[in-house]
Amino acid sequence: ELHHIEKSYAPKRWLSRGETLRAVDGVSLSVRKGETLGIVGESGCGKSTIGQIASLMLRPTGGSVVFKGEELVPGRRSPRDSRRSRIQYVFQDPYSSLNPRFTIGRLLEEPLAIRKKGTRRERRREVLRMLSRIGLDPAYADRYPHELSGGQRQRVGIARALMPSPELLVLDEPVSALDVSVQAQILNLLKDLQAERSLTYLFISHDLNVVHYMSDRVAVMYLGRIVELAEVGELYDGPLHPYTRALVDAIPDEPGTTPREAEIIEGELPDPRQLAGGCAFRARCPFAHERCGRQPLLEEVKPGHYVACHLLEPDRD
Ligand code: SF4
Ligand code: MG
């Protein structure tokens, strides 16, 4: 569970008094055991920041991360801490996260060795078993990351995240760097692994087709906030927030083709500093109205369907 997460990147002294510049601005969400919660949004919307905070790699400026009823403090505990190892992060580009001087075998053994799990021989056996599970010949244990294709490296990235037997995987654009033909293989591998190991996924992507394929529920982010959250079918069939509607309308029929971000919605992303207090989407919203100068709250408009937009606010007397 993420409770009221905030993250500011710019040092306060760069901003004049009263200005706020936040990558993430009051995000609360919970991922249910065994589900895949998708987070979708344009680059810069804060979705990766959320993923890094959820996997305890980054400390939020405000708010808390709770895992199975226990508050976890990002960055505080050692990586050996068993609580931390229950949440693992898979990078978009595994190449940047894999030490190029280590063999695949050593890269996979390391998460176990750090935690002093088993003897060397037992760990080696684990590694070979994992390699064949993720669809790589065990002979790859003696190869180096540069000898692998992008898809093979992502298999290794996933395997490495699975070595400490996590319960939750945060997958940050796990297939965005891959060819379309390879994407489906990796997504199906992720689905199979989830079913076999009762894994829970927080799945982050800018690609609405990929998110649709993977997710049970989807959160849509815009400039650091969640603007809509619903069960996947409901969100794609009946999006309610003007931003989600524009995103869903722009989904290409041809799978694997992604519209350029500029084509999704007219207008540039506004300067977040000018939006303090109001709806972040109002500079691009065709329905913007005077009241949109006030920040809309994320409210449940139908069971399980949350929207942050004044157009959809329940009537109040
Ligand atoms: Fe558009 Fe106003 Fe709704 Fe924001 S709150 S999405 S500006 S109608
Ligand atoms: Mg990102």
UniProtKB/TrEMBL annotation:
InterPro entries per the UniProt record, alphabetical: AAA+_ATPase, ABC_transp_ATP-bind, ABC_transporter-like_ATP-bd, ABC_transporter-like_CS, Oligopep_ABC_C, P-loop_NTPase
Keywords: ATP-binding, Nucleotide-binding, Transport
Gene Ontology MF terms in the entry: ATP binding; ATP hydrolysis activity
Domain (ABC transporter) ranges: 1-248
Taxonomy, superkingdom: Bacteria
SUPFAM superfamilies listed in its UniProt record: P-loop containing nucleoside triphosphate hydrolases (SSF52540)
GO biological process, one term: peptide transport
Family to which the UniProt record says this protein belongs: Belongs to the ABC transporter superfamily.
Name listed for the protein in its UniProt record: ATP-binding cassette domain-containing protein
Source species of the chain: Cohnella thailandensis
